[in-house]
Amino acid sequence: MAARLLAEGATVTCWDPMAPRTTADHAPWTSVTRHPDPLTALTDADAAILVTEWPELTELDWPTAARTMRTPLLLDGRNLLDPTPLLAAGFTHMSVGRPTHRPT
Fold first, then answer.
1. How many other CB atoms are found less than 10 A from the CB of residue 20?
2. In this predicted model, what pLDDT tens digit does every residue of 16-49 receive, in sequence order?
3. What is the maximal distance between C-alpha atoms in the chain?
4. How far is Cα 95 from Cα 74, in angstroms, rounded to an integer?
5. Exposed e or buried b per residue across 53-77, where buried means at least 16 C-beta atoms within 10 angstroms of its C-beta
6. Taking phi first (over 0 means left), then psi (-120 to 50 degrees means alpha), and beta for anything else, what does residue 57 get?
């Protein structure tokens, strides 16, 4: 996913505790800015893409994340999160097989 976003011209930042620690030989990681925690990775982001079911993501303070993001847009590729509290926090929430939820 990172490779495609980079190819389209996006700036990619991430929190991924399972990604290779040494990035020199692991493209596209050489062009991705990694962060030590999800909240830091979301600071000033235009969108968040969730593709794992790690407990750190269900426990994340999503209202704070929405306030730190430039655009609180969440693409939930795992249907991990309940859209109702995300909507209340100001997120536009898109997920697989569900309607998109947008703040009013």
1. 11
2. 888 766 555 555 567 888 899 999 999 999 999 9
3. 45
4. 8
5. ebeebeebebeebbeebeebbbebe
6. alpha
Please name which of 67, 53, 103 lies closest in space to residue 83, comparing C-alpha atoms. 103
Write the Ramachandran bin of 35: left for phi over 0, alpha for psi from -120 to 50, otherwise beta: beta
Tell me: pLDDT of 9 over 80: yes
Confidence of residue 50 (pLDDT cuts 50, 70, 90): very high
Residue 74, SS3? strand
Amino acid identity for residue 61 in this structure: D
- The DSSP annotation for 17-57 comes to TTS-S--TTSTTGGG-EE-SSHHHHHTT-S-EEE----HHH
Single out the residue of 71, 104, 99 nearest to residue 87, CA to CA.
104
Indicate the pTM of the whole model.
0.86
